[in-house]
Amino acid sequence: IEMILMDINMPIMNGYEATSSIRNDSKYDDIPIIALTANAMQKDIDKAKESGMQEHLAKPIDVPSLYTMLLKYIKPKVDTPQINENEEIEEEVYQTLESIHESDELNSDQGIVRAGGNKKLYQKILSKFVSIFEDSAEQLEELIKQKKLKEAGNLLHNIKGTAGNIGAINLYNLSVEFEEALNNKESDFTMLLNRYREVFKRLLTAIDKLKEEKKAQVSQKKMKPITQKELNDILTQISEKAKKRRAVECKKLSLKLEGYGWSQEHESMLKLVTKAIREYKFKIAIDAIEEYKINIAINGIKDVE
Q1: Which domain holds residue 57?
Q2: Distance of alpha carbon 1 from its chain centroid, rounded?
Q3: CB hemisphere CA count around 71 (13 angstroms)
Q4: What is the reported pLDDT for 90?
Q5: Which residues 6+ apart lie within 8 Å of 257 measured at CB?
Q6: How far does the chain reach from its first CA to its final CA, in angstroms?
Q7: C-alpha of 69 from chain center
Q8: Distances in whole angstroms, Cα of residue 18 to Cα of each of 6, 27, 83, 175
Q9: pLDDT at 174 over 90
Q10: How far apart are CA 205 and CA 268, in angstroms?
Q11: Which of 195-199, 215-219, 223-227 is predicted least confidently?
Q12: CB atoms near residue 52 (< 10 Å)
């Protein structure tokens, strides 16, 4: 075990208790424990450290921050150049987020960034979110009627974390407010429940709209030609950005390669490059690009339309 990512809000034994139990065994003294929680107040951070955790990561998880944390405590098993550009990676992400037009209900661009730039994964997360929480308003109402405020708070805590990850900004903010009201044991939750129903309904509409737009894009997408020089130039640009570990810019450039009629061989090479970038394995991406460029220099791209 090289690191433990500790969820705080767990049943039976919470993250603080679990960490204290682990720290009672001296053989685990050197294992870093990182708190993962949607509660990001200073008191929560202090409590995590008091229980024996080294660091605190707030949900929704920011991928570059998680990557930076992993590099801080886990030594890579392969030789990698020593650089100090993790801050640059984070800055790129935040600059990108600032430039994004935010939807009131669903900021899909932000959600995709939090999914590591993986659009397919983001779509799966959205589908899973709907399947798990579609009846959450009814569940909350029933729990509140039964005076099970702690259980209702736990449900909202889970919704809050997931809403932040998918870019459901309004639902995230309302969940924070609702959870706080439950913790304070307020007497009337009718207004909050009504607001929750409305916000969640609008979110489901936004998710459905996004899915329909995706289907339309796929059905309307036309294969377009690309020259060998254009492909080589894009690959070179991606390689240069990868050498500087600029993941966001690499992902933006890789989008230029979508919509072509790639052969299976080309498709496999491109997937290898994009997967390596998504996982921040820049050396693998650079090596794959160089191999790919040699391949197209020898064989050309006649099978690409």
Answers
A1: 4-92
A2: 24
A3: 19
A4: 40
A5: 231, 234, 270
A6: 48
A7: 15
A8: 8, 15, 35, 26
A9: yes
A10: 35
A11: 215-219
A12: 18
